[in-house]
Amino acid sequence: MIGALVAVAVWLAAPWLAARFTQVHINDARIAAKVVTVSSEVAGRVTAMPVLVGDTVAKGDLVAAIDRTSAQPQLDAVLSRLAATDSQLAELRARKVLLEKQLSARRDAALSGIAAADANHEASLAVLTNARTRHERAISLAEQNITSQQALDESQAALDIAAQQERAAFAAIENARASLAIVEADGEQMNVLESQIASVLAGRAGIEADRSLREIDLAHRTITAQFDGIVDGTFVDVGEYVTSGTRIAMYHAPDDFWIDANVKETDFGKIHVGSRASITVDAFPGRTFEGEVIGMGGVATSQLALLPSPNPSGNFTKVTQRLPIRVSIDAAGTELRPGMMVEVYIDVTD
Fold it and tell me: d(Cα 85, Cα 90) in Å, to the nearest integer?
C-alpha cells in the first residue's frame, strides 16, 4: 500500500516536476499594444467629436475638429499679401525687360552714331588733306607768279573750311561716344531693379513661410486617425477649449498585440529570443495560445523606478529582481484588449 501511494504521488507530481525543470511560469503578465494618445497641436474650441469609446476607426477618419473661425481668415490674409507681392514682382520684372530692350536699342544707336561719325571724320580728313595739298601747290605757283592772288586766297579759304569740317567731324565722334557713355550709365538702373527684385523675393520668402505656418495650423484643426484602430478613451467634449498638448482621445491597433512580462533574474538566463511559449488568457478560459520570446530587457525593473532605493541605512534585505521580456502571441480572430491578464509558460529545454 505504501508503495502504491508513493507511485500515485509520483505520478501526480510528475507533470509539476517536469514543468518546474522545463518551463518558466509567469503569472502576472499582461497584453500590450500600440496605444496612441492623440493630442491637440493648436488652441481652440472643439467643434466636433464623432467618436466614442469602443468605436472602430479607419485610417483618415475624423477623431475631432477644432474651431477654424479665426484660422481661415488669417490664411486668406497671407494669401492676399502673397498675391500682391507676386504682382509687384511681375511689374518689376516687366520693367527690367523693357529697360533691357531700351538700353539695347540706345546702345546700338550710339554705336551706329560712333561708326557714322568715324566715317564722316575719315572723309573730312581726306578733304582736309586734299585742301592742304592744293593750298601748298597754290602757294608754290604764287611764288613763281604763275597763279593769281585770288586763286591763293580761294585755296586758303578751302583749306580753312576743310579744317573746320574735320574738327566738326571729330567733335561728332566725341558726342557719339558721350551718348554711349550715357547709355552705359543708364545701365546702372538694371542693378537698381535687380536689387528691388531681390528685396521683393526675400519678402516673398517670408510670406511663403507664414503661409506654410497658417496652412499647418489650419490642417492641425482637423484631427484624424493615423491607422485602423479601436477607440480606448476620449478626454474632451464638444464645446471645450483646448490648448496645444491637450489630450483628445486614445486608440490602439486591434491586430498588433504582444505580451509584456517580468521574469525573475534567476530564470532570466534560461530564456533567449526565440524561446517557445504557451499562453493562457484569463478572459478566455480553456484556450491556449502559442507564442515566442521576441525581446529581452537590458535592465532590471527596479532601475526604472521613480523612487530608487539606495539603502542608506545599511539594512539590507535581498529581493529577487525582475527583468522585462516581450512575448508574441498568435491569437488571430480573438478580440484581445490591452491590459488583459495572461499566464505565460516559456519552454526552456531548447
Answer: 9
pLDDT of residue 312: 60
Cell numbers at residue 59, please?
485610417
Percent of the chain with pLDDT over 90: 33
Q: Is the pTM of this model over 0.85?
A: no
Number of Cβ within 10 Å of residue 275's Cβ equals: 20
* 283 vs 274: CA distance, rounded Å: 26
CA dist., res. 30 & res. 17, Å (int)? 26
Between CA 3 and CA 108 the distance in angstroms is 127
Amino acid identity, position 143 = E
Cell of 296: 529581452
**310: exposed, middle or buried (C-beta count within 10 Å: 0-12, 13-18, 19+)?**
exposed
Residue 29 bridge partners (DSSP): 342
Contact yes or no for 210/78 (Cβ under 8 A): yes
Q: Which neighbouring-strand residues pair with 32?
A: 258
**What pLDDT score was predicted for residue 66?**
93
Sign of CA dihedral 16, 21, 27, 30: negative
pLDDT tens-place string over residues 268-279: 888 889 899 999
Angle, alpha carbons 301-302-303 (nearest 5°) = 90
